[in-house]
């Protein structure tokens, strides 16, 4: 029974059998074809037996496959996977490799065709992009092997049942960290920002550069440099303020359930929070997380000790969207109770209308009174694509008119928040991480935190 379960008939065999049926039918009209059909059928049956014998004669495993998958997958990123296949048959083998990927991907096209010489090994590489955090279950790697005759298939199964966790986008975090270490953040849209002010902590005397504050010119050091034969202005350099608390406040309410390119707005906010927290730690600041919806979720106090980044990653991995209205009064109470030092608060949320923002404005103003508040919400990119298209009939004119109203309300929200001294970012989901990091570096350069 085990052999029968592993035995499959190839499409070539079915085509040949159909040909024999047509040949025998034709033999009724042309009897001379009947002996030819009989001989051909006997030869076919012998080849079929030889093909089966070649596939099943070995007691050991004559074909081997192994899937190499990371222990964790990065949400929203293309994660590389590799399947290694090895032909241990003494003849050339063709194989169809089917990987049973988790059902969350909703893909049925993970099929690879390979041809291997005897004792040859090949690596099959492909990528998967998860769009939800959580546990993903990989099934078996199914390999259907054919001999050069290609009449029968033998199925082999490897790597049965493996669970892999999908975490927030740690690949994106590593990318930003690497670019920051090599001073190439501009490649992902991070601007170089000249410091406007400075702290009072002296660092060094260095040559003056265009854009430096002229008030920091060190005239005594310049005079000494001139006496030594040079003519270069020297300026005092000051260290950035360090160990400033930076909190990411993540709204998990129903407004963050909206999808964009497979990911929800919550997942975009989580990925951006992970990257920003890592950048803050690199800048010697302290990073913390607070989540909320209809009630306050989890709070991770701002810190920068060893292992703190792992705590942030684990906390963000467990977050889920709730389908209820977010309670900003509970958020304000939690911030006032647990965050006593003046901090930079990055609030990831979404407002579609001015009236929705007005309901929460009193609590936002109270937060901005004690802390530096940065409200981050999202553009409706589908609406933007609609507005960019020319209208050709009355219905499209009506739709564009309504769309312009909603787009104007987004801009009005930004303007009203800024009137109360609240920093804002209105961004497309795909640009969220770069825009957030840019704003953080700008606020730090301006000495506002």
TrEMBL record:
Keywords (A to Z) from UniProt: Membrane, Transmembrane, Transmembrane helix
The protein's name in its UniProt record: DUF58 domain-containing protein
Domain named DUF58: residues: 204-375
Top-level taxon: Bacteria
Pfam families from the UniProt entry: DUF58
Transmembrane segments: 12-30, 36-56
InterPro entries associated with the record: DUF58, vWFA_dom_sf
């Amino acid at each position: 029974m085990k052999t029968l379960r592993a035995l499959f008939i190839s499409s070539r065999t079915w085509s040949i059998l159909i040909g024999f049926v047509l040949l025998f039918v034709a033999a009724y009209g042309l009897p001379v074809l009947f002996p030819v059909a009989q001989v051909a059928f006997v030869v076919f049956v012998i080849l079929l037996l030889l093909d089966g014998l070649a596939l099943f004669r070995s007691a050991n495993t004559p074909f081997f496959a192994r899937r190499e998958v990371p222990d964790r997958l990065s949400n929203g990123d293309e994660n590389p996977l590799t399947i290694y296949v090895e032909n241990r048959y003494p003849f050339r083998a063709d194989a169809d490799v089917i990987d049973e990927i988790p059902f969350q991907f909703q893909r049925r096209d993970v099929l690879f065709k390979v041809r291997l010489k005897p004792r040859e090994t090949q690596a099959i590489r492909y990528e998967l992009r998860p769009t939800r955090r959580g546990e993903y279950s990989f099934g078996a790697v199914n390999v259907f092997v054919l001999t050069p005759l290609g009449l029968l298939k033998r199925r082999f199964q490897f790597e049965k049942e493996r669970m892999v966790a999908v975490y927030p986008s740690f690949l994106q975090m590593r990318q930003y960290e690497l670019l920051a270490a090599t001073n190439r953040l501009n490649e992902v849209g991070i601007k170089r920002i000249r410091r406007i002010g400075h702290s009072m902590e002296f660092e060094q005397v260095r040559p003056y550069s265009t854009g430096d504050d002229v008030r920091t010119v060190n005239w005594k050091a310049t005079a000494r440099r001139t006496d030594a034969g040079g003519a270069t202005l020297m300026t005092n350099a000051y260290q950035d303020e360090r160990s400033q608390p930076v909190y990411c406040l993540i709204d998990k309410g129903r407004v963050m359930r909206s999808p964009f390119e497979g990911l929800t707005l919550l997942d975009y906010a989580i990925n951006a929070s992970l990257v920003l927290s890592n950048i803050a730690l690199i800048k010697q600041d302290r990073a913390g997380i607070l989540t909320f919806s209809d009630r306050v979720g989890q709070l991770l106090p701002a810190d920068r000790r060893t292992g703190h980044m792992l705590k942030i990653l684990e906390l963000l991995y467990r977050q889920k969207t709730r389908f209820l209205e977010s309670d900003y009064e509970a958020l304000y109470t939690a911030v006032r109770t647990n965050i006593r030092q003046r901090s930079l608060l990055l609030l990831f949320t979404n407002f579609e209308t001015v009236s929705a923002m007005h309901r929460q404005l009193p609590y936002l103003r109270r937060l901005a009174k004690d802390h530096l508040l940065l409200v981050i919400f999202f553009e409706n990119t589908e609406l933007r694509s609609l507005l960019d298209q020319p209208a050709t009939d009355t219905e499209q004119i009506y739709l564009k008119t309504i769309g312009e109203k909603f787009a104007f309300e987004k801009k009005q929200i930004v303007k009203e928040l800024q009137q109360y001294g609240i920093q804002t970012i209105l961004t497309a989901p795909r640009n969220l991480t770069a825009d957030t990091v840019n704003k953080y570096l700008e606020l730090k350069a301006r000495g506002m935190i």
